[in-house]
Amino acid sequence: MANDTSTTAVAESYVDGLTTFESFDLDPRLIQAIKQQGFSNPTLIQAKAIPLALQEKRDIIAKASTGSGKTAAYCIPIIQSILEDLANQSEPEHEIRSIILVPTRELSSQVTQFLEKLLVYCNKAISVANLSATYSPQVLGLILANKPEIVVSTPAKLIAILEANQSVVNLKHVRSMTIDEVDLILSYGYMDDLDKLENFLLVKKNNLQIFLMSATVNDDLNELKAKFCTKPAILKLNDDTARDKKLVQYYVRTSEFDKFLLTYVIFKLSLIKGKTLVFVNNIDRGYRLKLFMEQFGIRCCVLNSELPINSRLHIVEEFNKNVYNLLIATDETNDFTVERDEDDEEMEEAKPEEPKKGAKKDREYGVSRGVDFRNVACVLNFDLPTTSRSYIHRVGRTARAGKSGMALSFVIPGKEFNKHKASALASTKRDEKVLKRVVKSQLKLGFEIKPYSFDMKQVEGFRYRAEDGFRAVTATAIREARIKELKNELLNSEKLKRHFEENPQDLISLRHDKELHPSRVQTHLKRVPDYLLPAGARKDTAHKIGFVPFQKKVAKRKGKKSTRKSDPLKTFKARK
């Protein structure tokens, strides 16, 4: 069972073939729901964590690779424990019994959906509420009044609700608390919220079971462990399976403008097969790339923190359903922080992007971690992240659960920085230093990042068209597109209801990859002439036209010398 909360199969190296879910002595309703998802054997992390949590009542700190089943490793014990508590009560009452904290709204929605699948046969004995969803105050009050057994939320949202509804929300019956993606929660600055939560939990530390789950565990976890845990079981699994992952990584040294040129060539000529996730470092960058691609008829959609939460969830859902094959995602988890290097004397803290006036970013947004992007064939780092940890999280979106995948990163050499000001980005100044750290960190994980070079002689024929398309994407066009997209998504977010699942023909009005159109539209750029293609890629290589003269040669008549000259600029009449 995969940690990405989907029903996709996990790699064989993650599955414990000698153990079954029946051996955990789970409730029959829970066993039936697990089988409905198509699983008979737990993964390694589940086989270790579930017995420790249920039989020994231990706190669990788990470090396991992406796609190894961490979500089910805490969801199954939580549901089983609540079912046992309800069975021991003569008159079961609805009370909040478990809190699940996640770093982003997107992950909150995914975990809630996964819990609902596990609770499908529980006859509403247990209810789950996603507090991070966009509820009105009235609806939220009604949900809290019904006292769901499991609540899923981001730390900040939960604290805001607790402070505003102290008379309604009672946490004295809480018996378990889960913090998923622990390292990301700490990097998001949620520690203050966790401190406040400790005051709201009216439960003794010894009576509260804790689950701390993450793909990486570092020293920052010690403070959290000391605050909440008592004699935790620390599980570090799947560290030796990194080499088994079919992830191929390349980097390309190129100039700022050539990043756009190469991206145009890659997607127009379909050099990458399958779905691609393109990462950029700020919102304007995402819209610039989208508008540039539209010039050539390449359809794509954008995902960033400005869009409404309903639209973001819908975009991810449609991407997972293969409605879109190309998604440009703004990764703002970096906040332009940089890592300190021992031999790096020049240590300037790069400043984060200044927010636009009137633009509101969602603080609880994150795409490089937590969001369940399924069956991604390639991750393209159009902009290299500013930290090696962000790089690991980005490329972790592909080659998941034993499937193969590729990561391609554009790197700007120092001598090329800021040469093409229209396409320049401040964070690329440190690309080479970041690359060194990325290469070093990947070697520790058993991966090698190889250099890759395009045959620029074959690409050069596309340069003029790329320059023509890029000139149309002005700062004004980007600003107008950003406003237009936000207005469209705000309207669409009100329509994202079950009606559209029952009436799929109406979904055409909700497509997220519609063209935004810069002020200058050049339809001729959408077609690639055969003469620009490499010889082997042309459709009709056998038929060669050869040289075509401007004027047609006229055969001279015998005995007569023609003195007439035809000027094609003065007449439309053609001589026979």
Automatic annotation (TrEMBL):
One BP annotation, GO:
maturation of LSU-rRNA from tricistronic rRNA transcript (SSU-rRNA, 5.8S rRNA, LSU-rRNA)
Q: What class of enzyme is it?
A: hydrolase
User: What SMART domains would the database entry show?
Assistant: DEXDc, HELICc
Basic residues compositional bias: what residue ranges?
553-563
DEAD-box RNA helicase Q domain segment(s): 19-47
Q: Which PROSITE patterns is this protein grouped with?
A: HELICASE_ATP_BIND_1, HELICASE_CTER, Q_MOTIF
Keywords noted in UniProt: ATP-binding, Helicase, Hydrolase, Nucleotide-binding, Nucleus, Ribosome biogenesis, RNA-binding, rRNA processing
Pfam families cross-referenced by the UniProt entry: DEAD, Helicase_C
What spans are recorded as compositionally biased (Basic and acidic residues)? 349-361
Q: Where is this region: Disordered?
A: 339-361, 553-576
| Sample GO molecular function, one term | DNA/RNA helicase activity
Ranges spanned by the short sequence motif Q motif, renumbered to the chain: 19-47
Localization: Nucleus, Nucleolus
Source superkingdom: Eukaryota
Q: Which residues form the Helicase C-terminal domain?
A: 246-460
Does this UniProt record's set of keywords contain Nucleotide-binding?
yes
Known EC number: 3.6.4.13
**Ranges of residues in domain Helicase ATP-binding:** 51-235
| Reaction(s) the record says it catalyses | ATP + H2O = ADP + phosphate + H(+)
The GO cellular component terms are:
cytosol; nucleolus
InterPro entries listed in its UniProt record? DEAD/DEAH_box_helicase_dom (IPR011545), DEAD_box_RNA_helicase (IPR050079), Helicase_ATP-bd (IPR014001), Helicase_C-like (IPR001650), P-loop_NTPase (IPR027417), RNA_helicase_DEAD_Q_motif (IPR014014)
Q: Which family does it belong to?
A: Belongs to the DEAD box helicase family. DDX56/DBP9 subfamily.
Described purpose of this protein according to its UniProt entry = ATP-binding RNA helicase involved in the biogenesis of 60S ribosomal subunits and is required for the normal formation of 25S and 5.8S rRNAs.
State the protein's name: ATP-dependent RNA helicase DBP9
Organism annotation? Babjeviella inositovora NRRL Y-12698
